[in-house]
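Record type: monomer structure entry
Structure origin: computed from sequence
Chain ID: A
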Amino acid sequence: MKIKDSDIHHHLNVRMLQRGISKEEIEITINKGWSVEDVKEGTIGKTFVFPYNNYWEGKYYKEKEVTAYYKMKEEKIILLTTKARYGKSFKKGGH
């Protein structure tokens, strides 16, 4: 699934910038990530862990876990929100 700039509304774009999440990371998360359980009915949630090996807000982190929440309407994606956690040894593959 390809994410277009028009799929990202202004409020979500602001949150992505605050959380250090790129459009490409959302796309990878949706396409290659695993399902999350903390979703409301009718909402899809996917998580993916990226190697990070960089600094975020002054602290070094090995990994970044990105979660995207969205809905599908007539084969169109409606992105709701995204979140990121920085750390190491995140569970991968939904295990």
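Annotation 1: Residues 39 and 94 are 14 Å apart (CA to CA).
Annotation 2: The chain is about 20% helix and 45% strand.
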